[in-house]
């Protein structure tokens, strides 16, 4: 669900950018009075302003709602899976190791001498 919302979020952002870039500025209507009146006939007699403005508002609302949902989902995660390697914690599940009380001490052999010059064979 998180990745699907992220894709919708990115598509809404790209749509807003595209719609804003193709909209005409306020000074573009001055050209219609000097003979360029046929430039707005692609989107109907009302021009492209009404259609593009509504689509921009729609994608802006989608962008806002999805960003709030993504923010809510990312802050309410149960626990982070990241483990700091310097803290000595392990993210792997380890099996129960034997306790120190369960291990008997290994008796030291008294029959061997402690000669560091001997090489064991």
TrEMBL record:
Where's it found, cell-wise? Cell membrane
Q: Carries keyword Membrane?
A: yes
The membrane spanning regions, by residue number, are: 51-71
The region called Disordered is annotated at 77-121
Q: Which GO terms describe its molecular function?
A: protein-transporting ATPase activity
Q: Which GO terms describe its biological process?
A: intracellular protein transmembrane transport; protein secretion; protein transport by the Sec complex
Task: List the NCBIfam families hit by this protein, alphabetically.
Answer: secG
**What PANTHER family has UniProt attached to this entry?**
PROTEIN-EXPORT MEMBRANE PROTEIN SECG
Q: What does this protein do?
A: Involved in protein export. Participates in an early event of protein translocation.
Q: Spell out the protein name for this chain.
A: Protein-export membrane protein SecG
Taxonomy, top ranks, is: Bacteria, Pseudomonadati, Pseudomonadota, Gammaproteobacteria, Vibrionales
């Amino acid at each position: 669900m998180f990745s699907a919302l992220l894709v919708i979020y990115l598509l809404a952002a790209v749509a807003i950018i595209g719609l804003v870039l193709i909209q005409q500025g306020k000074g573009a209507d001055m050209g219609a009075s000097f003979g360029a009146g046929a430039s707005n006939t692609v989107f109907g007699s009302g021009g492209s302003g009404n259609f593009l403005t509504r689509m921009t508002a729609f994608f802006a609302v989608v962008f806002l709602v999805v960003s709030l949902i993504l923010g809510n989902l990312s802050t309410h995660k149960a626990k982070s899976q990241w483990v700091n390697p310097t803290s000595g914690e392990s993210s792997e599940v380890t099996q129960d190791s034997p306790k120190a009380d369960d291990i008997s001490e290994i008796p030291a052999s008294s029959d061997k001498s402690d000669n560091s010059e001997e090489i064991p064979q």
